[in-house]
Design brief:
The protein is of the alpha/beta class and about 450 residues long. The protein is about 40% helix and about 15% strand. Bound molecules: adenosine monophosphate (AMP). The site of adenosine monophosphate has 15 residues, from helix 3.
Protein backbone atom coordinates (compact mmCIF):
# COMPACT_ATOMS: atom_id res chain seq x y z
CA UNK A 1 0.00 0.00 0.00
CA UNK A 2 1.19 3.55 -0.75
CA UNK A 3 0.06 6.94 0.49
CA UNK A 4 -1.29 7.53 -3.00
CA UNK A 5 -3.36 4.34 -3.08
CA UNK A 6 -4.85 5.27 0.27
CA UNK A 7 -6.38 8.22 -1.53
CA UNK A 8 -4.84 10.95 0.60
CA UNK A 9 -5.29 14.38 -0.94
CA UNK A 10 -2.57 15.85 -3.14
CA UNK A 11 -1.28 18.52 -0.70
CA UNK A 12 -0.61 15.80 1.88
CA UNK A 13 1.15 13.59 -0.62
CA UNK A 14 3.38 16.49 -1.59
CA UNK A 15 4.30 17.09 2.05
CA UNK A 16 5.05 13.39 2.54
CA UNK A 17 7.27 13.33 -0.53
CA UNK A 18 9.11 16.37 0.82
CA UNK A 19 9.58 14.60 4.18
CA UNK A 20 10.94 11.67 2.17
CA UNK A 21 8.35 9.22 3.48
CA UNK A 22 8.38 6.58 0.77
CA UNK A 23 5.96 4.06 2.22
CA UNK A 24 3.49 4.00 5.06
CA UNK A 25 4.63 2.26 8.24
CA UNK A 26 2.50 -0.73 9.41
CA UNK A 27 0.42 1.37 11.80
CA UNK A 28 -0.19 3.94 9.07
CA UNK A 29 -1.17 1.24 6.62
CA UNK A 30 -3.82 -0.03 8.99
CA UNK A 31 -4.99 3.16 10.67
CA UNK A 32 -5.26 5.61 7.78
CA UNK A 33 -7.81 3.72 5.61
CA UNK A 34 -9.99 2.95 8.64
CA UNK A 35 -9.85 6.53 9.87
CA UNK A 36 -10.55 7.91 6.39
CA UNK A 37 -13.65 5.70 6.30
CA UNK A 38 -14.82 7.30 9.53
CA UNK A 39 -14.19 4.33 11.78
CA UNK A 40 -12.97 4.58 15.36
CA UNK A 41 -9.48 3.21 15.94
CA UNK A 42 -7.89 1.49 18.91
CA UNK A 43 -4.16 1.44 18.22
CA UNK A 44 -1.67 -0.36 20.39
CA UNK A 45 1.59 1.19 19.27
CA UNK A 46 4.64 2.71 20.80
CA UNK A 47 6.55 5.85 19.88
CA UNK A 48 8.75 5.40 16.84
CA UNK A 49 6.17 3.42 14.86
CA UNK A 50 4.90 6.46 12.95
CA UNK A 51 1.67 6.72 14.93
CA UNK A 52 1.61 10.53 14.85
CA UNK A 53 1.25 10.54 11.07
CA UNK A 54 -1.24 7.66 11.40
CA UNK A 55 -3.69 9.98 13.13
CA UNK A 56 -2.55 13.35 11.73
CA UNK A 57 -2.86 12.42 8.05
CA UNK A 58 -6.52 11.29 8.01
CA UNK A 59 -7.40 14.28 10.19
CA UNK A 60 -5.70 16.70 7.82
CA UNK A 61 -7.28 14.92 4.86
CA UNK A 62 -10.63 15.61 6.43
CA UNK A 63 -9.80 19.28 7.02
CA UNK A 64 -8.27 19.76 3.58
CA UNK A 65 -10.98 18.03 1.56
CA UNK A 66 -13.80 20.30 2.60
CA UNK A 67 -13.14 23.88 3.52
CA UNK A 68 -14.48 24.17 6.99
CA UNK A 69 -14.52 27.57 8.63
CA UNK A 70 -12.88 27.89 12.01
CA UNK A 71 -14.95 29.04 14.92
CA UNK A 72 -13.71 30.95 17.94
CA UNK A 73 -13.34 28.73 21.02
CA UNK A 74 -14.83 25.70 19.28
CA UNK A 75 -12.24 23.41 17.73
CA UNK A 76 -13.25 20.54 15.43
CA UNK A 77 -10.39 18.23 16.28
CA UNK A 78 -9.00 17.62 19.76
CA UNK A 79 -5.68 15.86 20.25
CA UNK A 80 -4.82 15.03 23.86
CA UNK A 81 -1.25 14.19 24.84
CA UNK A 82 0.16 13.49 28.31
CA UNK A 83 3.20 15.78 28.20
CA UNK A 84 4.07 19.20 26.88
CA UNK A 85 6.94 17.78 24.86
CA UNK A 86 4.69 15.29 23.14
CA UNK A 87 2.03 17.96 22.53
CA UNK A 88 4.66 20.21 20.93
CA UNK A 89 5.92 17.38 18.76
CA UNK A 90 2.41 16.52 17.63
CA UNK A 91 1.86 20.16 16.77
CA UNK A 92 5.08 20.19 14.73
CA UNK A 93 3.95 17.04 12.91
CA UNK A 94 0.61 18.64 12.01
CA UNK A 95 2.57 21.61 10.70
CA UNK A 96 4.89 19.42 8.66
CA UNK A 97 2.22 17.23 7.10
CA UNK A 98 -0.25 20.09 6.68
CA UNK A 99 2.22 22.60 5.24
CA UNK A 100 0.28 22.80 1.95
CA UNK A 101 -3.11 23.18 3.60
CA UNK A 102 -4.88 26.12 5.10
CA UNK A 103 -5.89 25.19 8.60
CA UNK A 104 -5.38 26.63 12.02
CA UNK A 105 -4.19 24.86 15.10
CA UNK A 106 -3.76 25.87 18.71
CA UNK A 107 -1.43 24.28 21.19
CA UNK A 108 -2.10 24.44 24.91
CA UNK A 109 -0.16 23.04 27.85
CA UNK A 110 0.51 23.95 31.45
CA UNK A 111 3.50 25.53 33.13
CA UNK A 112 3.37 28.73 31.06
CA UNK A 113 1.07 31.74 30.95
CA UNK A 114 -2.26 30.93 29.37
CA UNK A 115 -2.58 34.34 27.70
CA UNK A 116 -1.27 33.48 24.22
CA UNK A 117 -2.99 30.12 24.25
CA UNK A 118 -6.34 31.73 25.02
CA UNK A 119 -5.82 34.26 22.22
CA UNK A 120 -5.13 31.46 19.74
CA UNK A 121 -8.32 29.65 20.74
CA UNK A 122 -10.33 32.88 20.53
CA UNK A 123 -9.05 33.50 17.02
CA UNK A 124 -10.36 30.05 16.15
CA UNK A 125 -8.50 26.80 15.55
CA UNK A 126 -9.55 23.71 13.65
CA UNK A 127 -7.19 21.52 15.59
CA UNK A 128 -6.59 21.88 19.31
CA UNK A 129 -3.60 19.99 20.70
CA UNK A 130 -3.63 19.94 24.48
CA UNK A 131 -2.41 18.38 27.68
CA UNK A 132 -5.33 17.38 29.93
CA UNK A 133 -4.65 19.65 32.93
CA UNK A 134 -4.48 22.93 31.02
CA UNK A 135 -7.41 21.97 28.82
CA UNK A 136 -9.65 21.38 31.84
CA UNK A 137 -8.49 24.73 33.29
CA UNK A 138 -9.43 26.56 30.12
CA UNK A 139 -12.73 24.71 29.85
CA UNK A 140 -13.57 25.73 33.43
CA UNK A 141 -12.78 29.33 32.53
CA UNK A 142 -15.06 28.99 29.48
CA UNK A 143 -12.28 29.76 27.04
CA UNK A 144 -12.81 26.45 25.23
CA UNK A 145 -15.91 24.51 24.34
CA UNK A 146 -15.76 20.92 23.13
CA UNK A 147 -19.28 21.00 21.72
CA UNK A 148 -18.12 20.93 18.07
CA UNK A 149 -15.48 18.22 18.34
CA UNK A 150 -15.79 15.80 15.43
CA UNK A 151 -12.51 13.97 15.82
CA UNK A 152 -11.05 13.12 19.21
CA UNK A 153 -7.52 11.73 19.37
CA UNK A 154 -6.03 10.37 22.56
CA UNK A 155 -2.30 9.72 22.37
CA UNK A 156 -0.27 7.68 24.87
CA UNK A 157 -3.31 6.88 26.97
CA UNK A 158 -1.31 4.59 29.27
CA UNK A 159 1.18 7.31 30.09
CA UNK A 160 -1.67 9.70 30.74
CA UNK A 161 -3.08 7.27 33.32
CA UNK A 162 0.36 6.77 34.87
CA UNK A 163 0.67 10.49 35.29
CA UNK A 164 -2.65 10.62 37.18
CA UNK A 165 -4.70 12.35 34.49
CA UNK A 166 -7.68 10.00 34.74
CA UNK A 167 -10.02 12.52 36.45
CA UNK A 168 -9.25 15.19 33.83
CA UNK A 169 -9.63 12.64 31.07
CA UNK A 170 -13.03 11.58 32.36
CA UNK A 171 -14.17 15.19 32.59
CA UNK A 172 -13.05 15.84 29.00
CA UNK A 173 -14.71 12.67 27.67
CA UNK A 174 -18.00 13.64 29.34
CA UNK A 175 -17.95 16.95 27.48
CA UNK A 176 -17.38 15.48 24.02
CA UNK A 177 -20.32 15.30 21.65
CA UNK A 178 -21.52 11.72 21.29
CA UNK A 179 -21.42 12.00 17.55
CA UNK A 180 -17.72 11.99 16.80
CA UNK A 181 -14.83 9.88 15.63
CA UNK A 182 -12.28 8.72 18.20
CA UNK A 183 -8.75 7.52 17.60
CA UNK A 184 -7.17 6.01 20.69
CA UNK A 185 -3.47 5.14 20.99
CA UNK A 186 -1.58 3.50 23.80
CA UNK A 187 1.76 1.73 23.98
CA UNK A 188 0.36 -0.85 26.40
CA UNK A 189 -3.16 -2.13 27.00
CA UNK A 190 -3.59 -2.95 30.69
CA UNK A 191 -7.20 -3.59 31.86
CA UNK A 192 -7.72 0.05 32.97
CA UNK A 193 -6.91 1.26 29.47
CA UNK A 194 -9.16 -1.36 27.87
CA UNK A 195 -12.04 -0.17 30.06
CA UNK A 196 -11.43 3.42 29.06
CA UNK A 197 -11.26 2.45 25.39
CA UNK A 198 -14.55 0.56 25.72
CA UNK A 199 -16.22 3.65 27.10
CA UNK A 200 -14.79 5.87 24.42
CA UNK A 201 -14.89 3.89 21.19
CA UNK A 202 -17.67 2.63 19.01
CA UNK A 203 -16.97 -0.59 17.12
CA UNK A 204 -13.31 0.32 16.69
CA UNK A 205 -10.83 -1.07 14.24
CA UNK A 206 -8.27 -2.59 16.58
CA UNK A 207 -4.69 -2.30 15.44
CA UNK A 208 -1.77 -3.80 17.23
CA UNK A 209 1.64 -3.03 15.91
CA UNK A 210 3.39 -3.74 19.16
CA UNK A 211 4.45 -7.30 18.64
CA UNK A 212 4.47 -9.53 21.72
CA UNK A 213 8.19 -9.09 21.56
CA UNK A 214 8.63 -5.35 21.24
CA UNK A 215 10.79 -4.52 18.30
CA UNK A 216 14.25 -3.45 19.20
CA UNK A 217 15.64 -4.42 15.85
CA UNK A 218 18.51 -2.34 14.64
CA UNK A 219 19.49 -1.43 18.20
CA UNK A 220 22.74 -2.83 19.48
CA UNK A 221 21.90 -3.68 23.09
CA UNK A 222 24.83 -3.98 25.45
CA UNK A 223 24.94 -4.73 29.15
CA UNK A 224 27.66 -3.50 31.49
CA UNK A 225 27.78 -5.24 34.83
CA UNK A 226 29.22 -2.85 37.35
CA UNK A 227 28.84 -1.38 40.79
CA UNK A 228 27.27 1.99 41.52
CA UNK A 229 30.73 3.44 42.09
CA UNK A 230 31.93 2.39 38.67
CA UNK A 231 29.02 3.97 36.79
CA UNK A 232 30.23 7.58 36.54
CA UNK A 233 33.80 6.91 35.37
CA UNK A 234 32.50 4.35 32.90
CA UNK A 235 29.89 6.75 31.53
CA UNK A 236 32.47 9.53 31.09
CA UNK A 237 34.75 7.08 29.35
CA UNK A 238 32.04 5.93 26.96
CA UNK A 239 30.73 9.42 26.25
CA UNK A 240 34.20 10.49 25.20
CA UNK A 241 34.15 8.07 22.30
CA UNK A 242 33.95 9.44 18.77
CA UNK A 243 31.00 7.25 17.86
CA UNK A 244 28.84 8.97 20.49
CA UNK A 245 27.31 11.91 18.68
CA UNK A 246 24.14 12.44 20.60
CA UNK A 247 23.21 10.52 23.71
CA UNK A 248 20.31 10.27 26.13
CA UNK A 249 21.22 9.05 29.59
CA UNK A 250 18.41 7.72 31.78
CA UNK A 251 18.37 7.98 35.54
CA UNK A 252 15.77 6.67 37.93
CA UNK A 253 15.09 9.91 39.82
CA UNK A 254 14.86 13.61 39.07
CA UNK A 255 17.53 14.30 41.64
CA UNK A 256 19.75 11.68 40.07
CA UNK A 257 19.28 13.36 36.69
CA UNK A 258 20.27 16.77 38.07
CA UNK A 259 23.31 15.46 39.91
CA UNK A 260 24.53 13.47 36.95
CA UNK A 261 24.01 16.39 34.56
CA UNK A 262 26.09 18.61 36.85
CA UNK A 263 28.85 16.01 37.18
CA UNK A 264 29.11 15.57 33.43
CA UNK A 265 29.22 19.34 32.92
CA UNK A 266 31.94 19.57 35.55
CA UNK A 267 33.87 16.93 33.63
CA UNK A 268 33.66 19.06 30.47
CA UNK A 269 30.89 17.05 28.80
CA UNK A 270 28.08 19.39 27.66
CA UNK A 271 24.97 17.91 29.27
CA UNK A 272 21.58 19.05 30.52
CA UNK A 273 19.00 17.35 32.68
CA UNK A 274 15.35 17.24 31.72
CA UNK A 275 12.63 16.15 34.11
CA UNK A 276 9.20 17.03 35.41
CA UNK A 277 10.39 19.49 38.06
CA UNK A 278 12.08 21.75 35.53
CA UNK A 279 10.16 24.72 34.24
CA UNK A 280 8.59 24.44 30.83
CA UNK A 281 10.99 27.05 29.47
CA UNK A 282 14.01 25.17 30.83
CA UNK A 283 12.81 21.88 29.32
CA UNK A 284 12.24 23.48 25.95
CA UNK A 285 15.64 25.16 26.04
CA UNK A 286 17.31 21.85 26.85
CA UNK A 287 15.50 20.03 24.04
CA UNK A 288 16.31 22.74 21.51
CA UNK A 289 19.98 22.78 22.51
CA UNK A 290 20.05 18.99 22.16
CA UNK A 291 18.26 19.07 18.83
CA UNK A 292 20.68 21.69 17.52
CA UNK A 293 23.69 19.72 18.72
CA UNK A 294 24.72 22.37 21.24
CA UNK A 295 24.70 19.77 23.95
CA UNK A 296 25.76 16.22 23.36
CA UNK A 297 24.06 14.60 26.30
CA UNK A 298 20.53 14.81 27.62
CA UNK A 299 20.04 13.31 31.07
CA UNK A 300 16.41 12.31 31.49
CA UNK A 301 13.92 10.51 33.67
CA UNK A 302 11.34 8.16 32.15
CA UNK A 303 8.38 10.53 32.31
CA UNK A 304 10.29 13.48 30.87
CA UNK A 305 11.67 11.40 28.04
CA UNK A 306 8.35 10.12 26.78
CA UNK A 307 7.62 11.82 23.52
CA UNK A 308 11.12 13.12 22.89
CA UNK A 309 11.23 12.75 19.15
CA UNK A 310 14.72 13.63 18.08
CA UNK A 311 16.31 11.80 15.22
CA UNK A 312 19.99 11.01 15.20
CA UNK A 313 20.31 9.86 18.82
CA UNK A 314 23.27 7.50 18.44
CA UNK A 315 23.31 6.16 22.00
CA UNK A 316 20.95 5.56 24.88
CA UNK A 317 22.51 4.86 28.26
CA UNK A 318 20.57 3.30 31.07
CA UNK A 319 22.66 4.76 33.86
CA UNK A 320 20.07 3.32 36.19
CA UNK A 321 18.06 0.34 35.07
CA UNK A 322 14.35 1.12 34.65
CA UNK A 323 11.71 0.15 37.21
CA UNK A 324 9.64 -1.82 34.69
CA UNK A 325 10.82 -3.87 31.73
CA UNK A 326 8.47 -1.97 29.35
CA UNK A 327 10.31 1.26 30.15
CA UNK A 328 13.48 -0.35 28.87
CA UNK A 329 11.92 -0.73 25.45
CA UNK A 330 10.61 2.84 25.50
CA UNK A 331 13.97 4.18 26.58
CA UNK A 332 16.08 2.38 24.03
CA UNK A 333 13.53 3.24 21.33
CA UNK A 334 14.90 6.81 21.49
CA UNK A 335 17.77 5.57 19.38
CA UNK A 336 17.52 3.56 16.18
CA UNK A 337 14.56 5.65 15.04
CA UNK A 338 13.19 5.60 11.52
CA UNK A 339 15.40 2.71 10.48
CA UNK A 340 18.69 4.22 11.75
CA UNK A 341 21.05 2.10 13.79
CA UNK A 342 21.58 2.85 17.44
CA UNK A 343 23.39 1.59 20.51
CA UNK A 344 21.75 1.05 23.90
CA UNK A 345 24.09 0.53 26.84
CA UNK A 346 22.62 -0.50 30.18
CA UNK A 347 24.51 -0.31 33.45
CA UNK A 348 23.38 -3.18 35.57
CA UNK A 349 24.33 -3.60 39.22
CA UNK A 350 24.03 -6.83 41.13
CA UNK A 351 20.74 -5.57 42.60
CA UNK A 352 19.40 -5.05 39.07
CA UNK A 353 19.87 -8.65 37.98
CA UNK A 354 16.18 -9.54 38.38
CA UNK A 355 15.19 -6.58 36.21
CA UNK A 356 17.72 -7.69 33.61
CA UNK A 357 16.05 -11.11 33.52
CA UNK A 358 12.62 -9.54 33.13
CA UNK A 359 13.84 -7.35 30.30
CA UNK A 360 15.37 -10.34 28.54
CA UNK A 361 12.06 -12.16 28.90
CA UNK A 362 10.22 -9.19 27.39
CA UNK A 363 12.53 -8.67 24.43
CA UNK A 364 12.88 -12.43 24.07
CA UNK A 365 16.63 -12.44 23.74
CA UNK A 366 19.66 -12.81 25.90
CA UNK A 367 21.41 -9.46 26.03
CA UNK A 368 25.11 -9.34 25.40
CA UNK A 369 27.25 -8.54 28.38
CA UNK A 370 30.24 -6.66 27.10
CA UNK A 371 31.68 -5.72 30.45
CA UNK A 372 31.94 -7.36 33.85
CA UNK A 373 30.26 -10.35 35.38
CA UNK A 374 28.31 -11.05 38.54
CA UNK A 375 30.17 -12.58 41.42
CA UNK A 376 27.26 -14.49 42.92
CA UNK A 377 29.34 -15.81 45.83
CA UNK A 378 30.13 -12.32 47.07
CA UNK A 379 26.80 -10.76 46.16
CA UNK A 380 28.29 -7.98 44.11
CA UNK A 381 29.61 -7.22 40.70
CA UNK A 382 33.06 -8.39 39.85
CA UNK A 383 34.12 -6.48 36.81
CA UNK A 384 37.54 -7.81 36.04
CA UNK A 385 37.53 -11.38 37.20
CA UNK A 386 37.91 -14.16 34.73
CA UNK A 387 36.02 -16.75 36.78
CA UNK A 388 32.62 -17.93 35.72
CA UNK A 389 30.44 -20.21 37.75
CA UNK A 390 29.63 -23.57 36.30
CA UNK A 391 26.33 -23.47 34.50
CA UNK A 392 26.38 -19.68 34.39
CA UNK A 393 25.20 -18.32 31.09
CA UNK A 394 27.81 -17.48 28.57
CA UNK A 395 28.59 -13.85 28.89
CA UNK A 396 31.19 -11.97 26.92
CA UNK A 397 33.24 -9.57 28.96
CA UNK A 398 36.09 -7.24 28.52
CA UNK A 399 39.60 -8.43 29.28
CA UNK A 400 40.96 -7.65 32.71
CA UNK A 401 43.35 -4.77 33.20
CA UNK A 402 43.29 -1.12 34.12
CA UNK A 403 41.87 0.21 30.91
CA UNK A 404 38.14 0.62 31.42
CA UNK A 405 37.40 0.95 27.74
CA UNK A 406 35.11 -1.89 26.86
CA UNK A 407 35.50 -4.15 23.89
CA UNK A 408 33.87 -2.99 20.72
CA UNK A 409 30.23 -3.93 20.73
CA UNK A 410 29.24 -7.22 19.16
CA UNK A 411 25.95 -7.25 17.40
CA UNK A 412 23.43 -9.61 18.92
CA UNK A 413 21.82 -11.70 16.25
CA UNK A 414 18.99 -13.36 18.11
CA UNK A 415 17.68 -12.35 17.95
CA UNK A 416 -19.70 0.65 24.60
CA UNK A 417 -20.12 3.29 25.33
CA UNK A 418 -23.25 3.60 27.41
CA UNK A 419 -26.03 5.00 25.33
CA UNK A 420 -23.73 5.81 22.44
CA UNK A 421 -25.32 6.69 19.18
CA UNK A 422 -23.80 6.18 15.77
CA UNK A 423 -21.12 8.59 14.69
CA UNK A 424 -21.00 10.23 11.34
CA UNK A 425 -17.22 9.89 10.78
CA UNK A 426 -15.11 12.74 9.59
CA UNK A 427 -16.06 12.69 5.93
CA UNK A 428 -19.74 12.70 6.62
CA UNK A 429 -19.21 15.24 9.34
CA UNK A 430 -17.19 17.36 6.95
CA UNK A 431 -19.97 17.27 4.42
CA UNK A 432 -22.42 18.22 7.09
CA UNK A 433 -20.22 21.11 8.19
CA UNK A 434 -19.39 22.43 4.77
CA UNK A 435 -22.95 22.38 3.56
CA UNK A 436 -23.83 24.31 6.67
CA UNK A 437 -21.12 26.89 6.48
CA UNK A 438 -19.30 26.51 3.20
CA UNK A 439 -16.57 29.20 3.43
CA UNK A 440 -12.83 28.67 2.98
CA UNK A 441 -10.60 27.49 5.75
P1 LIG B 1 6.28 8.61 15.73
O1 LIG B 1 6.06 7.17 16.06
O2 LIG B 1 5.04 9.27 15.24
O3 LIG B 1 6.92 9.34 16.88
O4 LIG B 1 7.31 8.67 14.47
C1 LIG B 1 8.62 8.21 14.57
C2 LIG B 1 9.54 8.77 13.48
O5 LIG B 1 9.26 8.14 12.22
C3 LIG B 1 9.42 10.26 13.25
O6 LIG B 1 10.72 10.79 13.19
C4 LIG B 1 8.70 10.40 11.92
O7 LIG B 1 9.14 11.56 11.24
C5 LIG B 1 9.15 9.13 11.19
N1 LIG B 1 8.15 8.61 10.24
C6 LIG B 1 6.80 8.50 10.43
N2 LIG B 1 6.20 7.93 9.36
C7 LIG B 1 7.17 7.65 8.46
C8 LIG B 1 7.18 7.05 7.15
N3 LIG B 1 6.08 6.61 6.58
N4 LIG B 1 8.38 6.95 6.53
C9 LIG B 1 9.51 7.39 7.12
N5 LIG B 1 9.57 7.96 8.34
C10 LIG B 1 8.42 8.09 9.02
Amino acid sequence: MTFESMGLIEPLQKALAKADYKNPTPIQEKTIPAALAGQDVLGCAQTGTGKTAAFALPTLDYLGRDSIPKKPRQPLVLVLAPTRELAIQISQSFEKYGQNLKFRKALIYGGVSQHKQVSAIRRGAHVLIATPGRLVDLINQKHVSLSDIEVFILDEADRMMDMGFLPQLQRIIDLLPRERQSLFFSATMPPKIRDLAKRLLFNPKTINVTPKTPSVEGIDQQIYLLSNKQKLPMLKDLLARDSVDRAIVFTRTKRGANTLGEKLEAAGIPATAIHGNKSQAARQRALEAFRKNKIKVLVATDVASRGIDIDGVTHVFNYDMPMEPESYVHRIGRTGRAGAEGVAISFCTYEDRQMLREIERLVKMELTIVYGEFDESRNRNKSNSSSRKPGQRRRSRRPSGKNTSPKPARRHTSGSASGRRKKSGPKKAARKQSSRQGSAV
